[in-house]
Design goal:
The protein is an alpha/beta fold. The protein contains 12 helices and 11 strands. It comes from Usitatibacter rugosus.
């Protein structure tokens, strides 16, 4: 006789059989997932992509983000929209970007301060494990500049002066716990000097007081310092990168000037949330690297005092990991704290 009660059939199903069905369904889902992800990646982007910038509009990070967004929009045929989310040294915007879905529709532009922040702020994400590196966009030095009245024409003379007058030479920074503060304290450690830190709320006031002679030394971005150097209001002693820069061919690196092992680079790059499909990561990387090879890109970045970078996602990831460890030691050794 036919059983017209489906619930009886369901109840009478062997428990082992039910377990096998569940396992089979789970395996089917796992097998289907890569195909679905591949299909989504192949179709990406099919809607606007946002680039979270963890800094205020109008600065160097914002400029670079908007330039790259325009290039990506042209290359990938979808709008790339910049959203500024400043605060907490860049941590608010970085966290928002990193905690977005890993579908390629939210990217985050980070700066080299991203690798300092984990050591000076309490952050709510893992700066390595919770993100996907995509591409390094730019690279450039800080310029070590002094007020013209400082009795040091070379970096070696500044080191000698600072050692002769411990704690009497004052260096400005854009804020406690900033990349400028960390780079300056790193110099103290490497050179064996004891210059005294004076924090400001931003590079503008720090520059103003260095020109006025309230502070004597400032580790400045090239875009901020070059007009003042050209006007004779500041003297440049060295660049912090391991190589000289075209804009200042006669200015030595810190290493050349007698402080071995000192190398600090300012950079910008794109990251995404962890778990982004490699196909999407590689597509963005290729589009950015293509843009970085353009003469227009070189000229635009040079206006901000930096040069194109490029490279693979893996290379950018290695840079981030290496610098996080380097700054962790510097912050501990110099007792650096954020505002």
């Amino acid at each position: 006789m036919k059983n017209n009660n489906p619930s009886k059939e369901k109840k009478s199903m062997n428990p082992m059989h039910r377990a096998r069905v569940r396992i089979a369904l789970a395996i089917a889902a796992l097998l289907a997932a890569p195909s679905l992800a591949h299909a989504q990646a192949a179709d990406w982007p099919n809607k606007p992509v946002r680039i979270v910038v963890p800094f205020a509009p109008g600065g160097g990070s914002d400029f670079i983000a908007r330039y790259i967004a325009r290039r990506l929009s042209e290359e990938l045929k979808q709008p790339f929209i910049v959203e500024n989310k400043p605060g907490a040294g860049g941590n608010i915007g970085a966290e928002q970007g990193i905690k977005s879905p890993p579908d390629g529709y939210t990217l985050t532009l980070i700066a080299s301060s991203y690798t300092v922040n984990p050591s000076v702020y309490k952050i709510n994400f893992d700066p390595v494990a919770d993100m996907t590196p995509i591409v390094q966009i730019s690279q450039g030095p800080l310029l070590i500049v002094v007020n013209p009245n400082v009795a040091a024409k070379t970096l070696g003379e500044l080191v000698a002066l600072a050692k002769a007058k411990p704690n009497e030479i004052y260096f400005a920074s854009s804020g406690s716990g900033s990349i400028v503060h960390a780079a300056s304290e790193y110099f103290n450690l490497k050179a064996g000097t004891k210059m005294t830190h004076v924090p400001y709320k931003g590079s503008g006031p720090a520059m103003t007081d260095t020109i006025a002679g309230q502070t004597q030394v400032f580790f400045s971005s090239a875009s901020t310092a070059m007009p003042q150097i050209n006007a004779g209001k500041l003297r440049v002693l060295a660049v912090t990168t391991s190589k000289r820069i075209p804009a200042l061919p006669n200015t030595p690196t810190v290493i050349e000037a007698g402080v071995p092992g000192y190398d600090v680079t300012l950079w910008h790059g794109l990251i995404g949330p962890k778990g982004m499909p490699p196909e999407i990561v590689n597509k963005i990387n290729a589009a950015v690297v293509k843009a970085l090879k353009l003469k227009e890109t070189e000229d635009q970045l040079q206006n901000d005092g930096v040069a194109p970078a490029g490279g693979t996602p893996q290379q950018f990831g290695t840079t981030i990991k290496t610098e996080i460890e380097m700054w962790r030691k510097v912050v501990a050794d110099a007792s650096i704290k954020a505002d």
